[in-house]
Amino acid sequence: MDKNGDPAEMAKFGGKVLVVTFWATWCGPCMKELPMLDGIQKVAGKDKLQVVAVNIEDGERFRKIARALSSLNVTITNDYLKEASEAFGVKGIPHCAIIGRDGKIINVHRGYSEDALDSIIAEINEALASK
After folding, report:
1. What is each CA distance from 125 to 75, 78, 95, 104, 122, in whole angstroms?
2. pLDDT score at 11
3. What are phi and psi of 23, to 5 degrees?
4. How far is CA 130 from the centre of its chain?
5. Which phi and psi (to 5°) does residue 42 adopt?
6. Residue 25, class by beta-carbon neighbours within 10 Å (0-12 exposed, 13-18 middle, 19+ buried)?
7. CA-CA distance, 5 to 21, in Å (whole number)?
8. d(Cα 48, Cα 30) in Å, to the nearest integer?
9. What is the DSSP letter of 48?
């Protein structure tokens, strides 16, 4: 569910590079990653890229943090039922999936540190540059 309580359906992002990242407020690399992904979302535009940031915390915590992050350009959702986490094989965070315009998974990053963020952003840029 997004911050408005609507389901976040991946099918509506077809034809775009899709980045799905699972995060929580207590995850240091996750909190460093969100502003970086927001920046790339702004530069690339919503017609080419969609970043979906899936919070794994309880609904009450999500509502509080979603208000605080409302200025971000990424789609912020919550997975309190763990359905998306299960579908994406999330066993821990941070967990980030990069999906090409064709709907095929380009890469999945699991349990990375802040040192990996630059290479993940480079990978997203590469996906945006490919046809």
Report:
1. 19, 26, 18, 16, 5
2. 66
3. -150, 170
4. 20
5. -60, -45
6. middle
7. 19
8. 23
9. T
**What whole-number distance in Å separates Cα of residue 56 and Cα of residue 25?**
9
Residue 32: count of CB within 10 angstroms of its CB? 13
Q: What is the pLDDT of residue 38?
A: 96
> Which domains does the chain possess?
18-126 (3.40.30.10)
pLDDT along the chain (131 residues), means of 10: 51 86 94 94 95 94 90 93 93 95 93 92 94 74
DSSP structure string for 55-109: E-S-HHHHHHHHHHTTT-SSEEEE-TT-HHHHHTT-SSSSEEEEE-TTS-EEEEE
